[in-house]
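Q: I'm a student working through a structural biology exercise. My instructor gave each of us a protein and asked us to get a predicted structure, then write a short paragraph describing it. Mine is M18 family aminopeptidase. I'm not confident about reading structure output yet, so if you can add a plain explanation after the tokens, that would really help. Here is the sequence I was given:
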Amino acid sequence: MSDLQEFNKRLREFLDASPTPFHAVEEMRLRLQEAGFSALDERGEWQLEQGKGYYLIRNGSSIVAFRCGKDPVHERGWRMVGAHTDSPNLKVKPTPELHRHGYFQLGVEVYGGALLNPWFDRDLGLAGRVNYENAQGQLRSALINLNRPVGVIPSLAIHLDRDANNNHSVNPQRDLPVVILQSEESSDFRALLADALGAHGYKDVSAVLDFELSFYDCQPAAMVGWNEDFIASARLDNLLSCYIGLESLLAADTSEHTVLVCNDHEEVGSQSAVGAQGPMLESVLRRIAGDEITWQRAIANSMMISADNAHGIHPNFSDKHDGNHGPLLNAGPVIKNNVNQRYATNSETSSLFRRLCVSSDVAVQSFVVRSDMACGSTIGPLTASAIGVKTLDIGVPTFAMHSIRELAGSKDAYNLRKVLTKYYQLDSVVDAV
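A: Happy to help. First, here is the predicted structure for M18 family aminopeptidase. I'll explain a few features afterward.
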């Protein structure tokens, strides 16, 4: 098996094991532990050692991992990569039970800007975090993944909706409740969850108190195309970048101060205690620095690369792109630009990245949204404005962003890993720009 094939195999395993941000962070934690990184407790004292790796987790859904370099951090700064752990999906409502015509359904909320039509007629699994009281009256939390088809959202037959192929809009309240079983009796979803927890080894569940659960497509990630040119999977936006960042961090040597931050809640604005607009990253970096002057000097010597997927030019809809800025799959990572600061790229940070790509023998592309279309955003501008660090926005080109199943090139993630590994090992991100 070639290095590329091995990389994509591990990537697919990571995607399949990460149906929610909670599971993605747990998978990253396991890989960091295996690589010798140590867990930190924010409530305790930190004794950080040169050349050692550490990580901390908040809410089970956001993670910061870092290595302490050889030289003082105020002299060298941090080489940082940022991504996000969340993806658009359907989340189960707190009181979801719907009993209609002998079918038991669960009401859902749409999380983020999901492309809804592809959710119909899929084999849906269910995963997330469940909080419960045990037999001793203690509050406990459990990760659960019902990795089998437990629900479906059936389409209405074409015979009953003759205009479906011409004008089909989705009403989330009416159209998206998920069918999970057939019964003439009323069912209690929390009771079903308690049984599921018991089947997963949690034998002490007295009562399920609350949950954060999401439906997801059970179809595993796959290599697609006659020559396997593509990788298809749910949640490529943005677990692809989380995995690339993690692989790059682990592949880099330990001489520089390196950071990977993967925040939750980007798809809904990042305004939370663990989102990029919250205090998590800054509080960690300030604690590493130790005092205000060291912090300020370190930030002045630092750089952030925000990694989030880019829109590849779709061969059927090429008019949706600016003619000079239509990234191709398998043609290299994409520098994302926007003059209205929806992306944080400037000419200095993009020039550094271009040099890194050249030295890594990796092609590089640019994306600018059409001037008559609105532009999305990333954690890049939020991080740049929060901590004042020079920032670049880049990403791997993809199709079908925010669909239940997205598509990326089979070579792009591997090549971006090469570039970010080299970035993590730069002697200076100031002299270079």
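A: Here are two points you could use in your paragraph. The mean pLDDT is 95. The chain has two domains: 3-87+234-424, 89-217. It's a good idea to check both against the output above yourself.
Q: Great, thank you!
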